[in-house]
Fold each of these.
Amino acid sequence: MFNTDPIARFTATPGGGAAPLDVWFDATSSSDADVGDELSFSWNFGDGAQDVGMTCSHRFAVPGIYRVQLTVDDGWGGTAGAYLDVTVSESARTYYAIVVGIANYYENPLQYTDDDAWAFANRLLQSPSMWDANNIVLLLNRDATTTNFVAAVNAISAQATPNDALVIFYSGHGSQWGDRAPFDEADGMDEALCFIDADMTDDGLASVLRNVSVGQLLVLVDACYSGGLIRGQSEDASASVSIGVGLGEDLVRDPEITKDLGELGRSVVVISASADYEYSIEWTNFGHGVFTYYLLDAMTGLADVYGNHDGLISAEECYAVLAPNVVSFTSSIGQVHHPQILDSSIGELIFAK
């Protein structure tokens, strides 16, 4: 029996950029003329790391030129190889943030939500190699209007590049009501963030953020019902990744064609304090909302200690630490709420050190 060697081909997206660089590798264009051969794929990324599978992602943490090698095996002794060079440059990513905290509502004021925002912005500035105070817009109380928020997004979008990152943090009231046009909520409810002058629905917020010209977008929301910003219908609230009709899905949905997450033009992570049917509480002894308290705790470095120990703090590492802590504490006081996450990032989304 004559066996034909397979043909190895793959793409790397992106093919280069600033460190840390997440790259999506896709070998689906590889082929074999022999009908019925089951191909296996092994990768060597040139930095000591390896992986298997037709598609995979890899983070290059250090600048350099890496020869990525793919080996395709047909299981009958036939193999083929292909390689591409990935160039990783010194980090040129600019980090932007819009940090919103509203306690002084005209009705139903809160206690610590403005403190949440101030503390989060201050924690970002403890990573001076990543964060510049001029790139952080802090909107507290009466300054936290929808007009100011949209203006801040537009100003950042006008100067940001696809290599840059934007972090949105919101702490304040959240609300929900029956779905309004466009009727796109699986649970029949629109969720909203309550700015000082008006509410902004998940649809409205997605519309503002969808076209912002950054490659990475992180949205952190400490508000009641905030899980509805990620999905439209509740599933098991203990799930680590929840995807549905809401702000998060709106942000990662391509308007023309459905794409796999690895093919999206940017990485999006949305983390909420609670499920779409739950309150998000403050706690006097913490001086913060419970979600923000454990987020700040994770950002001290605890997230990386329990993560991959690379000296960087990612949204995913923070979620892995804060979610069980929030659930455990709020359960102990009889007011349980479950943080939720939508993650379309290739690799981890880094936002602090």
Amino acid sequence: MAIIANHSPNYGVLQFWDVRTGSLLSSLPVRSAKDTSEEDAHWVIVGNPASNEFVITRGAELKIWRLPRSTGEKAIPIERDTSFDDFAFLKDPTTVAGAFRLAGTKDSNNVVVPDVSNVVVGIMDTTLPEPCFPLSQTFSFHKRRASILTTDQSGSYICTQTQKPNSATYPLALFRLSPEGATAIPMPEVSILGGHARLSPKGNLIWTGNRILQIEPSLSVNISRTIDRKGIIDPPFTERIPRWVGNSHVVELVDLRHGTGSPSVAPERHLLLWNVGNGERAAVASAPFAKTLSASPDGTQIAEGSTEKMLRIRDATTLAEQKVLRVHDASLTAVAWHPDSRWSPRRPKIER
């Protein structure tokens, strides 16, 4: 498992842990771009099951670390102040979809300076050596805010959500990828919650926080379930990180008010597990210090990173704690299971 925490405005410490034994495998310093000391710039980790790579992003750079042993890093210009799930690996293990700054003009030292005002959703080849390079495909969202980008397990679909400037609406778009390019799939005209759009591992469902959308074999998209969020307060966008648990459940961080529900009652942080088959709450667990989540590839465990420097491993059915590890000297900002089964819990795979 990969875990990262801030240790200074521009530096973090990336650690790799074997959660089966509670052993620290490796600890590496990672540096973000010089212009990203803002408090709202957060680390994000994305795993690539085909190439044993982790992508670590913060601010204006995307960095690639190869496992099990890392000998260096590759820095690539991306959207400034990246703080959400903006990247996803595709079917080709060397390609990643994300929010990228288009190549700009050369400065006085003949170095290409990216155009920070022109950002697109695109696909890039991580093997290219140049710091600025053409994107093989670009989509229609420019100058994105509060954005989300996810893909299915096969890397055949891309689901994106963005916030329109000066608006409280969050358009959702779905693309099907093929050797010929990307095809936009028409979406229903429904209101969805910002920061929630997540494509399921099998690519047949989309979680939007207040609804579950079904992607039919005919590539039409329909509303499957409506989610009752009564009593739920969404956390800030940087902590609004629902995760699919297998293809049948979704876990998220929420703030809940108990008792009368009166505004005078302070909300408390919880983990909430949803059954997407019936749209009902399957389990809830108190998690007052939780900040980040990740579900294991086999759908049997959930990792919870906290501000109290702890990593909690929970059962994915009951949310009961199975193991608690002190893993850092600072608040955890991102956790991610390694998608390769050799680096995941050696437990029987359960189809959920």
